[in-house]
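Revision sheet: C-alpha cells.
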Amino acid sequence: MKILKTLALSIFTLGTTLSYAQKSDLGAWYMYFGNNKISKKLNWHNEIQYRNFDAGGDLEQLLIRTGIGYDLTENNNNILLGYGFILSKPYVNGEKTENIEHRIFQQYITKQKFGRFNIQHRYRLEERFLEDDFRMRFRYLLGFNIPINNKEMLPKTFYGSVYNEIFLHFDSPVFDRNRVYGALGYVINKNMRIEAGYMNQIQENKNRGQIQIGFYNNIPFTKN
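Predicted:
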C-alpha cells in the first residue's frame, strides 16, 4: 500500500505540474483499458481515453472503444472485432470546433517472450466513418514490457514499458502519424496494473508530446 500511495502522489504531482503547461504543446491523456475474459476463448475489450490539450480542462478528444476477441491459442494470438466512438474538439483558426467519428476495427495481437522481454505485436485495420468522409487506416504497434525488480510480471513488480506505433492511410498521403512511448509501470496484482509515461507523436511533420497515465484491468468474468 505504501508503494501505491507513493505512486499516486507522484501522478498527482505530475498532473499539478501539467496544469501550468496549457500554453505549451504538451498534452495529457488519461486512459482506462479493460480486457476481460468472458469464456475460455472469448474476451471483452473495453477502453476509455480522455485526451486533453493541457492537464485536464481543455478537451482534445474523448475516445471510447469496445470489442469482442477470440484466442486462437491459449492467452495469445487474439483476433478481435470492435467499435469506437470518437468525439474530437480541435482548434481551427483559433476557434474550438467539434466533430464525431464512428469507427469499426479489426485487430490481431500476438505475444512473445525472450528472457525478461515481454513483446507484443498488434496489427489493426480501421474503417473510419467521419461526418463528411470515409477513410481506411492500418496501424502496427511493437511494444515491450520489461520487469525491473522481478524476473516476471508478478504482483508488486515495477516494469518499463516502451512501444512504437505507425499509422498508414490507404490513400494519399500514405503516412498518417507515428507514436513513440516510454513509461514506468507497477503491477498491482495479477489482474491490474498502472503506468505513467510520455508519448511523442509525429503528424504532418509536427511533433507533439503527451503525458499519459493508464490503468489496466484484466479481471476475468469467468472462473475458467
